[in-house]
Amino acid sequence: MAEKKDLNFEQAMTRLEEIVKQLEDSAISIEESLALFEEGTELTKTCRAKLEEAEKKITILTEKDSDKGNSASG
Predict the structure, then answer these.
(1) Helical (H) or strand (E) element with 7
(2) How far apart are CA 44 and CA 28, in angstroms?
């Protein structure tokens, strides 16, 4: 699998869903469960970072739109 930081948001979420299904399966060992949990934690960080990045872009874009509206009315 690609490096976790190289995954896009959708790929990371898909992998997280796979991990959850595997963790719900009681047939896996404690060691495997811990490894999956660790991978899931890293994927969560990746998703959070991508969401924060998107939020910053949205804020910048809406501020630009707001500034355009203010200068046109003034």
Answers:
(1) none
(2) 21
pTM for the model stands at 0.73
DSSP letter for each residue of 12-45: HHHHHHHHHHHHH-TTS-HHHHHHHHHHHHHHHH
* Run means of pLDDT, 10 residues per run, the chain, 74 residues: 74 96 90 96 96 95 81 54
Q: Is 66 helix (H, G, I), strand (E, B) or coil?
A: helix
Structure tokens at 1: 């699998």
Residues 37/23, Cβ–Cβ less than 8 Å: yes
Q: How far is residue 56's CA from residue 62's CA, in Å, rounded to a whole number?
A: 10
Q: What is the DSSP letter of 74?
A: -
Ranges of each domain in the chain: 40-74
